[in-house]
């Protein structure tokens, strides 16, 4: 039905088996796929779905390697497993290890000890082709590196591919031994495609991280490429007119998702079918007009160096973003990606090609396997050595000057009639929240003076911190992360979790229960509310989850190109738990509106409605709900800046840059709309012009937006007093 006058012989000449000839159109397709990935990482909006380039890679590799197995079986009636692994080692490991070690060296030069430590830790996963497991475990929860994801995050796809091909040669060795015909091998391939695709669709709905990163839900893409190799002889019988249609459909199936998919797209799920089928259609349409276009010199050039460019471009982009203003991010990303291309070419010519052509490994494959094992061990040893020898932080972790006795004073019982007539409670509250100079009243009582004196002292510390150029010896980095980040159990749950462990603190048998709810910003307030719970006899339940904003909105997972479905499931679980238990107070904290991720996806109205909806829902579970004011977004990673700069004045942020919009007004509006108590915090963190990186004896931020444990504890009296003034007595 689909045959034409084009002979099968003509098709064979344009579609040689990989063992018999080289298809330039497939090389060009590789060039196109890496270009899509790079354009996506540059963050050009038009290519918001460019991550599907990885799926194109998977299908191509499945087709090529399976075809090589069939060629070997045809020629030798066997599959030499050692020879296969030797080829893979020579093809992949030298460039991969070089990129890893060079990236560590660049990080050693460019980053602070904190940033370097994160790079080296991730290098272990990259060196052992286990990056997908590492990312699944971490769920890209980079609390100390919020400015960018891991520099080795892209190694997840290499890990998935190599895990697949660790098993694949043994499958075909068995096929060779059983003498199963080529076309009949399609049956197990169809089964793999069907089962793996079903797993991808099913698991994506419940645990998108697992589906995104792991082999069982990605294996079908490589198996589909293998299926094409099985049916090559039948596909060769297709007529010219049909393959032209097939080629156009294939290119459309790749390009449309590139332009339509984005960070919100549930992926892989069934949506990966389009780029996978599209790649298969293009492979099957050898000899079409599209094949001629893909064989253009520019695409072949990119395809030739696609592996190296894929390896190098992402570390360059990540490292460049640590030094340049994010307002110019696309330009910075583009320049970094372009600079990485000649590095990839140099790597290909001086490392990949010479090692791949070493006669020793060609004639003695077992030695190639040994070389791969040794090279992996050497890379791990070098990474471990770098970790041991990395620059250690000379600044003390904690000043140990943070936890002070809690004092709550009932203003309305101690102020004089004169004071009451001059300043109503509403006016006093407003002054406290918006000015950095509290007004003092001659008729005020001693207790009120104590409150105002404490506020004045704090403002003086803010002012002094904003003028610091050199770090005093008494200053600490703010202490460890809150204890809920610890294991056994980890109460600040990672991105993959859809439920939380019990996580009870304070006085466990208390009749009064407060819940701390939100994302990592809520987690930073845990030390304060845990201290309050212990001092005043509350039971505290911690319910926080990485990057899971409190707003009832659908948003992407930070650092990963997909919708954060695990967050939505977790919030539903928390709501069901709250409905079944008596709760007296819920404390909410979340990322603010005008920062990356939220700002670029939601309008002010959408964000405000999403926050109000969440607060309203929580209000149905507890008589009192508190919204903590969100924190500023500093211009630099504060700890990295403090530890790598002699002049720490550049670690402070200008008020208008750290707080470019009046997000407090939006938060307060949502709180008023839902009868929620709002606790502003900006005046406790910034002067009118500067948000300092050091206040008193403590560094204020762990990164760009998360407050340190020690600094948070110094705010205890101010927060508890503001809650009391708003009608919430924690005593």
Notable characteristics:
731 residues, mainly alpha, Rossmann fold, 2 domains, seven-stranded mixed β-sheet, two-stranded antiparallel ribbon, disordered N terminus
Summarize the entry for a quick read.
The protein is 58% helix and 5% strand. The protein is mainly α.
Q: Which structural class do you get from the secondary structure elements?
A: mainly alpha
Strand content: 5-15%
What's the Cα radius of gyration?
30 Å
How far apart, in Å, are the first and last alpha carbons? 83 Å
The average pLDDT score comes to: 87
Number of domains: 2
Individual helix count:
34
The largest β sheet comes out as: 7 strands, mixed
Silhouette: elongated
Indicate the percent of residues in helices: 55-70%
Q: Tally of extended strands?
A: 11
* Unreliable parts: 1-6, 140-147, 413-435, 437-445
Fold and architecture overview:
There is one protein chain. The protein is mainly alpha-helical. The chain folds into 2 domains: 15-389, no CATH class; 467-725, SGNH hydrolase (Rossmann fold), CATH 3.40.50. It is 58% helix and 5% strand. The protein contains 34 helices and 11 strands. The strands form 3 sheets. Strands 1, 2, 3, 4, 5, 6 and 8 form a 7-stranded mixed β-sheet that branches. Strands 7-9 form a two-stranded antiparallel sheet. Strands 10-11 form a two-stranded antiparallel sheet. A hairpin with a 2-residue loop joins β10 and β11. The radius of gyration is 30 Å and the shape is elongated. Mean pLDDT is 87; it is low at 1-6, 140-147, 413-435 and 437-445.
């Amino acid at each position: 039905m689909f045959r034409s006058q084009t002979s099968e012989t003509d098709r064979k000449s344009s579609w040689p088996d990989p063992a018999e000839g080289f298809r330039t159109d497939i090389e060009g397709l590789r060039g196109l796929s890496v270009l899509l990935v790079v354009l996506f990482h540059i963050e050009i909006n038009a290519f918001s779905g460019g991550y599907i380039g990885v799926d194109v890679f998977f299908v191509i590799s499945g087709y090529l390697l399976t075809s090589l197995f069939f060629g070997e079986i045809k020629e030798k009636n066997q599959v030499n497993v050692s020879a296969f692994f030797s080829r893979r080692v020579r093809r992949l490991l030298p460039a991969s290890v070089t990129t890893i070690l060079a990236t560590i060296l660049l990080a050693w030069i460019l980053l602070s000890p904190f940033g370097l430590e994160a790079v080296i830790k991730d290098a272990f996963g990259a060196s052992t082709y286990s990056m997908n497991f590492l990312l699944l475990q971490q769920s890209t929860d980079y609390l100390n590196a919020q400015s960018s994801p891991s520099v080795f995050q892209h190694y997840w796809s290499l890990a998935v591919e190599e895990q697949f091909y660790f098993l694949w040669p043994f499958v075909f060795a068995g096929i060779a031994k059983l003498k199963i015909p080529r076309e009949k091998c399609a049956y197990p391939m169809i089964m793999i495609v069907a089962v793996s695709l079903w797993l991808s669709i099913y698991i994506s709905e419940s645990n998108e991280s697992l589906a995104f990163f792991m082999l069982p839900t990605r294996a079908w893409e490589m198996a589909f490429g293998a299926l094409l190799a099985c049916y090559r002889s039948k596909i060769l019988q297709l007529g010219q007119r049909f393959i032209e249609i097939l080629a156009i459909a294939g290119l459309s199936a790749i390009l449309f998702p590139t332009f339509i998919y984005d960070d919100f797209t549930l992926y892989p799920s069934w949506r990966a079918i389009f780029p996978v089928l599209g790649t298969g259609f293009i492979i099957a349409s050898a000899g079409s007009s599209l094949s001629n276009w893909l064989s253009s010199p520019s695409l072949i050039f990119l395809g030739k160096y696609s592996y190296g460019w894929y390896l190098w471009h992402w570390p360059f982009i990540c490292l460049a973003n640590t030094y340049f203003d994010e307002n110019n991010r696309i330009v910075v990303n583009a320049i970094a990606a372009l600079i990485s291309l000649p590095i990839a070419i140099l790597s290909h010519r001086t490392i990949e090609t010479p090692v791949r052509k070493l006669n020793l490994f060609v004639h003695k494959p077992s030695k190639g396997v040994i070389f791969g094992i040794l090279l992996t061990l050497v890379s791990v040893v070098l990474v471990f050595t770098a970790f041991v020898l990395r620059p250690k932080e000379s600044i003390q972790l904690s000043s140990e000057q943070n936890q002070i006795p809690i004092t709550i004073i009932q203003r309305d019982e101690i102020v004089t009639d004169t004071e009451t007539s001059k300043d109503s409670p509403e006016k006093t509250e407003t002054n406290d929240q918006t000015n950095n100079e509290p007004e003092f009243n001659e008729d005020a009582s001693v207790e009120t003076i104590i409150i105002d004196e404490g506020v004045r002292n704090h403002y003086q510390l803010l002012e002094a911190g904003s003028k610091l150029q050199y770090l005093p010896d008494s200053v600490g980095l703010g202490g460890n992360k809150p204890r809920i980040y610890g294991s056994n159990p980890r109460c600040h749950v990672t991105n993959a979790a859809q439920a939380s462990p019990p996580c009870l603190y304070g006085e466990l048998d208390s009749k009064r229960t407060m819940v701390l709810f939100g994302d990592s910003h809520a987690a930073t307030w845990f030390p304060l509310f845990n201290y309050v719970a212990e001092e005043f006899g509350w039971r505290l339940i911690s319910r926080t989850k990485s990057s899971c904003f409190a707003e009832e909105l659908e948003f992407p997972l930070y650092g990963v190109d997909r919708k954060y479905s695990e967050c939505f499931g977790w919030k539903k679980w928390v709501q069901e738990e709250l409905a079944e238990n008596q709760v007296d107070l819920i404390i909410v904290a979340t990322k603010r509106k005008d920062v990356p991720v939220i700002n670029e996806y939601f309008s002010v109205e959408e964000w405000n409605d999403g926050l109000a909806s969440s607060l309203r829902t929580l209000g149905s579970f507890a008589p009192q709900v508190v919204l903590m004011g969100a924190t500023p977004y500093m211009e630099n990673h504060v700890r990295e800046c403090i530890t790598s700069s002699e002049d720490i004045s550049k670690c402070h942020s200008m008020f208008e840059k750290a707080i470019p919009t009046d997000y407090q007004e939006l938060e307060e509006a949502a709180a008023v709309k839902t009868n929620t108590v709002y606790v502003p915090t900006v005046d406790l963190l910034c002067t009118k012009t500067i948000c300092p990186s050091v206040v008193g004896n403590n560094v204020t931020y762990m990164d760009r937006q998360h407050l340190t444990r020690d600094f948070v504890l110094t705010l205890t009296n101010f927060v508890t007093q503001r809650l009391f003034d708003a009608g919430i007595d924690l005593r």
